[in-house]
Amino acid sequence: MSMLSIQNLWKKFPKNNGETELVAVRDFNLEVEAGEFICLLGPSGCGKTTLLRIVAGLDFQTSGSISINGKIIAGPGSDRGMVFQEFGLFPWRTVLKNIEFGLELQKMAKPERLKISQKYINLVGLRGFENSRPYELSGGMKQRVGIARALANDPAVLLMDEPFGALDAQTRNLMQKELLRIWKETKKTVLFVTHSVDEACYLADRIVVMTARPGTIKEIFSINWERPRDRASMEFAALRKKILAELELEMDSSSTSIKDSGSGD
Amino acid sequence: MPSSSAARYKSRVTYWFKTGKYKDIMVMAASLVGFIALWWIASDIANTTYLPNPAQVFEALVESFQGGNPQFGILPMQQNIEASITRFVEGFALAFAVALPVGLLMGYLRFGEDIGRPIVEIFRPIPPIAWVPFFLIILGSFWGPIWTIFLGAFFPILSNIIFGVRSVDPTLLDAAKTLGAKRITIFTKVVLPSTVPFIMAGVTIGVGIAWMCIVAAEMLGAEGGGVGSYIQAENNLSNYPEMFAGMVVIAILGIVTLGIARILEKQVSPWRGKK
């Protein structure tokens, strides 16, 4: 049995005239093994973020089911942690207090809380910034806090919604490297939404390429190369080219664009 | 840190000079001096008892602290100030205590808004001063002025709180949900702290309006003195320098309270306006 299972998932939104429906996700099926790193890749508006939000419990599917370790999920839960493109850090809380947010909600005792938050502060490389406020940090550091905060709850699955999309190209590459290190140390299952082919090729065990809206799986690419991967290698370029070609076909059917770069929007 | 206040003062002065901020300060000082000069000239030209010059007003101000005018029931200035401040604090505290829960409910719950909105919209356009005669008749000269201040401060605080609750960053709400927050914890741990800067903005605006209301209310009648009562009493006696001295006191008190509100605003939410 796989750890995360998405079955026959549909998401429809009512259109403005109230009659016809907009289909955002169409019959999506995916089985994810424990510890796997999955990238969801697709043109803008293909429903990949909607899909991730449904897994997070922030949106609800029209039909279909999602289960984690065999347990059907409904609504948000601490078995899933989420990292947001816009960071979503609480500006009135220090770095430490941001990371402890989920633990506070669990009514964990203070010394224990501190032990866990300190562990994740060290893991993401934020030692010395415990008492800084988010506005005093750079984008990359903010996202380190975001990752630590999500991990502090010890979720089974880490959901990441274009987490490096708001960062500059250099920081983005560094954060990708850092994420792989963190992933190796924590052995989490990761579901990572991106529109960057380069990012997906660098990170994923499997790349799930989605069709234009209504979004469903177009093709899945399994990559079993060693990490860290060499962006300049022949095979990397070949894979990137292949996926880009797939996506270009999708772009013909929708007017949205896709980028092959580490630069984000 | 030891010796910090002297060091801080010195660094601030250097900062003023380095950034050219001293120019702003000099211009501001010149503007103030210019205003007083213009007032003086205007007073000389008008040559009427209704417009005393700055020196006469200053003299009256100093004297107003020395015993008042007992045979006409005029209290010494410090007692008037005390009465006004007490009234201000009472009315303002009342306004804050009511506006906070009402504003949070109206901002957070749809039915809260549906209940509150029509009533608020009816009362909002009525200037608080318009209530003064009614309040004085119904509530008397003790509670009347306090309720006028209440009305003056209530609406700006209320609308800022409602706006604040609605302006909560949706990503923060999502983040809290994924970390396990339920409706009540979302409210106490996300909505409430997010709203703090807006509450403080409402307080700052409310402070200014409350001062205007207090003077107007006291002029129409207040028990136990007050700077507004003082202005009215001196006016009745045709003591115009004293009347102006009362106005100066109001201005100073207004500036001080607003200053306190602004400092508080910065202390409470240093993260405001920063991403």
Q: Would you give an account of this structure?
A:
- The complex is a heterodimer of chains A (265) and B (275).
- With 265 residues, chain A is α/β, with parallel strands linked by helices.
- In chain A, 35% of the residues lie in helices and 23% in strands.
- Chain A contains eight helices and ten strands.
- Chain A has helices at 48-56, 95-99, 101-105, 110-123, 139-152, 169-186, 197-203, 234-253, and strands spanning 4-14, 21-32, 37-41, 63-68, 71-72, 80-83, 157-161, 189-194, 206-210, 217-222.
- In chain A, the strands form two sheets. A six-stranded mixed beta sheet of chain A has the order 6-7-8-3-9-10, sandwiched between helices. A four-stranded antiparallel beta sheet of chain A has the order 2-1-4-5, with helices on one face.
- Chain A is globular.
- Chain B has 275 residues and is mainly α.
- Chain B has two domains: 1-47, no CATH class; 53-272, MetI-like (MetI-like fold, Orthogonal Bundle), CATH 1.10.3720.10.
- Helix content of chain B is 80%, strand content 0%.
- In chain B, helix 3 crosses helix 10 (240-268).
- Classes of the chains: A alpha/beta (265), B mainly alpha (275).
- Chain A binds chain B through residues 53, 56-58, 76-78, 80-82, 84, 86-92, 101-102, 104-106, 133-135, 149-150, 153, 159, and chain B through 169, 171-172, 174-181, 185, 189-190, 193-194, 196, 269-271, 274-275.
Topology summary:
The complex is a heterodimer of chains A (265) and B (275).
Chain A lengths: L3 E11 L6 E12 L4 E5 L6 H9 L6 E6 L2 E2 L7 E4 L11 H5 L1 H5 L4 H14 L15 H14 L4 E5 L7 H18 L2 E6 L2 H7 L2 E5 L6 E6 L11 H20 L12
Parallel strand pairs in A: 3-8, 3-9, 6-7, 7-8
Antiparallel strand pairs in A: 1-2, 1-4, 4-5, 9-10
Helix pairs in contact in A: 4-5, 7-8
Chain B lengths: L3 H16 L1 H26 L7 H11 L12 H32 L1 H14 L8 H35 L3 H9 L4 H38 L6 H10 L3 H29 L7
Helix pairs in contact in B: 3-10, 4-5, 4-6, 4-8, 4-9, 6-8, 8-9, 8-10, 9-10
